[in-house]
Amino acid sequence: MKVLITGATGLVGQEIVSLCHQQGIDVNYLTTNKDKIKSQSNYKGFFWNPKINEIDTDCFKGVEIIINLAGSTVAKRWTSGYKKEILESRVLSVSVLFEALSVIPHSVRHMISASAIGIYPDSFQNYYMEDSKERGNDFLGKVVAQWEDTVTKFNELKINVSILRIGLVLSKNGGAFVKIVDPIKYGLGSVFGNGKQWQSWIHVIDLARMFVFVMQEEKYGVFNAVAPNPVSNQKLTHAIALGLNKRIFLPNTPKFFMQLILGEMHTLLFSSQRVCSSRVLGLGFVFKYDNISSAVDDLLK
Q1: Is 32 exposed, middle or buried (0-12, 13-18, 19+ CB in 10 A)?
Q2: Which of these, 288, 157, 275, 282, lies nearest to 219 by C-alpha position?
Q3: Which of 63, 99, 140, 146 is most buried, judging by how many CB atoms fall within 10 Å of its CB?
């Protein structure tokens, strides 16, 4: 089996590549950086530039599955220009793949794409399943909805589609977890707002395992890629502090203060989505880290 991965050199992509190689699955990957192109027997890089609809179609040779992780980080100040990049980096990358496959012979039969739980509205009460019809009306909600609509078009090419709506990814190698840990280490940790906002999280290892599970078991449709036990921001913050043998001394950080510092991006810290992962559990997926304590313990080793 051979898989094509976009975003293979990123935080999640690296874990998926490692799992694929452990299981004898060859990986092709696309990169916008020609310096990152490697050519090994089981790991081959190809150049693309979605902004100008450029792609080396040799990347599809022998490929049965595409795992799409492409997209600029949302953890950067949302200027009007960068908001455009957040959207286009997701939608254009998918469109380039679609357009290429629509005009060349290929063996691709399954498209597995990242998405985000930001598609669901901000709520302290709702518990979102994959079939929940509610959609967020904020910037991220609209981005994710458009992203998923573009991915779903692969059905027109008789390619099965799977969409993983990813929550807060916890990894010791980067991302949100490191940014939460560092202030707590130095006694500067703080809960955001009232701390009651739900944070539906997932350990990066489990996220990579879920992508590979959906690929190998040939499961299609939408999956909430979150651990079974979402926690409040307060519980997450205090669980990390406990793991570090620290205490949270500072008062809660008010929303208006973070809005002054981060602008519109502050919504990442204060939005609340309680999301259910029962569908993937029902299909036989077993989480290695199903509660926040076990995840934090592992990440702080």
Answers
A1: middle
A2: 282
A3: 140
d(CA 176, CA 239): 15
Axis-axis angle for helices 176-185, 233-243 (nearest 10) = 60
With a threshold of 0.85, does the pTM exceed it? yes
Model pLDDT, residue 297: 97
Q: Which two tokens stand for residue 15?
A: 């874990």
Q: Show the tokens assigned to 28.
A: 């092709």
Distance CA 39, CA 42 (A): 8
Of all residues in the chain, what percent are helix, strand and coil, respectively (each to 5)? 45, 20, 35
**CA dihedral over 229, 257, 243, 299, signed as positive or negative:** positive
**Cβ neighbours of 121 (radius 10 Å):** 17
Alpha-carbon distance of 273 to 249, in angstroms, equals: 26
What is the C-alpha separation between 278 and 132, in angstroms, rounded?
A: 13
- Written as six digits, the tokens of 27 are 């990986």
Helix, strand or coil, per DSSP, at residue 199: strand
Helical spans, DSSP H, in 37-156: 80-101, 139-152
Distance CA 261, CA 25 (A): 44
Given a cut of 50, the residues of the chain with pLDDT beneath it are: none
Rounded CA separation 23/182 (Å)? 35
